[in-house]
């Protein structure tokens, strides 16, 4: 009864927040429309061209058995380092090439096809959730900081911290009884002999087990990939509109008071409060805002590095949706993202102070007059909006909306299924 009552209360809260968010869109129709169009532009110009080919190719490689074959070859490398099967190298490489949430899509497919245990899937998600190099070198270093040399610093910090997270999560769930049982069964059926022969045999066995003709395999790969892309695009548009509504209604400034106090305590530039909150929700928007603030370069780099590693609640929601049909939990994923963000920011500071970022700082192009004006306006607007009395009822309700959404993702977006069971 306790869980049932708690679930009903949570449903009422979510329903109320959905209604309030709808009213906010009615109150701010122009802002919501423009934010939605910007989100669609990102999807059309960046997300679809960059991710869709990787999704299709990954489905083909899985169906043809190539991934399982390479998994046998890479088992001696991945198992000692990260305690994951060799196929995890495929998730890692595709995550590096295409960025998030490619790793989650592949890990979910591994779990659905029983190529990894639940614990191994959670370990994989912990360190394969990385940004692609093109984003850090192109969009962030060149587009936002106007310095290509900073791309190397950000990428190095990002991938070193990801590797450390993977090593740390090697011990995650090692005493889980279900995991131990599955691992024991896998060891018993594992064949001995030449590793190349075993890899070839596993590839043929996986292809035979799939059984779909190539034409059907290709068609399914395209249709499933397009469906995944539409889901990702929908989250991007939703969070773009949510961030804009939170900003213009003044809620972002209200939420930022605790962050502002912490930053003041540690002598961090106050103009980074807004980008921190935006980056917690969506990494592209937060990174762009942080790069534009007229704050010390080291602080901006550390914050951007942490935002990229955290990847934003938008990506977290995408990952949760991808994992809905599996038993992989979101709790270790959240822990890994916090750890990754902290380590990435820390390593960025260490690399910068060691001299790696100073030459890049000298080569940076000065901020344009337009950027400086936007930065000044953004810095002052935080405190101006926070002190204004803009729709206090709307502020409180939308704050609850944000908190409820985070809680829903922590429950892996299984709310509908939960209620179907208790009924």
TrEMBL record:
The keyword rRNA processing belongs to this UniProt entry's keyword annotation: no
Record InterPro entries: Spore_IM_YlbJ
Keywords: Membrane, Transmembrane, Transmembrane helix
Annotated TM spans: 12-31, 51-74, 81-100, 153-173, 235-266, 301-323, 335-354, 390-410
Protein name: Sporulation integral membrane protein YlbJ
């Amino acid at each position: 009864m306790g869980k049932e009552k708690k679930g009903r209360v949570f449903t009422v809260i979510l329903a109320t927040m959905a209604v309030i968010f709808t009213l906010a869109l009615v109150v701010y129709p122009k802002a919501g429309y423009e934010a939605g169009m910007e989100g669609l532009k990102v999807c059309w110009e960046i997300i679809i061209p960059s991710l869709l080919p990787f999704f299709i190719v990954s489905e083909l490689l899985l169906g043809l058995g190539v991934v399982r074959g390479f998994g046998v070859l890479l088992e001696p490398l991945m198992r000692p380092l990260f305690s994951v099967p060799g196929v995890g190298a495929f998730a890692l490489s595709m995550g590096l090439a295409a960025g998030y949430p490619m790793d989650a899509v592949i890990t979910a497919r591994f779990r659905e096809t029983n190529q990894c245990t639940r614990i191994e899937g959670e370990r994989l998600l912990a360190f394969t959730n990385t940004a692609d190099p093109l984003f850090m070198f192109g969009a962030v270093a060149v587009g936002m900081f106007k310095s290509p040399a900073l791309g190397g610093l950000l990428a190095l910090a990002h991938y070193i911290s990801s590797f450390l997270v993977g090593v740390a999560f090697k011990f995650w769930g090692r005493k889980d009884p279900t995991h131990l049982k599955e691992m024991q069964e896998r060891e018993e059926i594992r064949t001995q002999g030449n590793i190349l022969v075993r890899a070839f045999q596993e590839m043929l066995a996986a292809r035979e087990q799939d059984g779909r003709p190539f034409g059907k395999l290709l068609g399914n790969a395209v249709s499933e990939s397009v469906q995944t892309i539409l889901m990702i695009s929908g989250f991007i548009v939703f969070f773009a509109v949510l961030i804009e509504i939170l900003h213009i209604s003044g809620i972002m400034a209200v939420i930022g008071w605790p962050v502002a106090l912490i930053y003041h305590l540690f002598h961090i530039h106050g103009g980074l409060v807004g980008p921190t909150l935006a980056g917690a929700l969506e990494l592209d928007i937060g990174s762009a805002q942080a790069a534009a603030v007229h704050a010390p370069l080291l602080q901006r780099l550390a914050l951007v590095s942490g935002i990229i590693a955290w990847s934003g609640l938008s990506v977290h929601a995408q990952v949760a949706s991808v994992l809905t049909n599996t038993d992989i939990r979101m709790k270790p994923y959240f822990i890994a993202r916090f750890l990754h963000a902290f380590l990435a920011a820390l390593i960025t500071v260490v690399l910068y102070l060691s001299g790696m970022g100073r030459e890049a700082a000298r080569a940076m192009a000065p901020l344009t007059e337009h950027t400086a004006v936007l930065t000044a306006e953004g810095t002052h607007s935080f405190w101006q909006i926070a002190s204004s009395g803009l729709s206090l009822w709307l502020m409180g309700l939308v704050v609850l909306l944000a908190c409820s959404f985070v809680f829903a993702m922590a429950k892996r977006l299984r709310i509908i299924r939960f209620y179907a069971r208790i009924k």
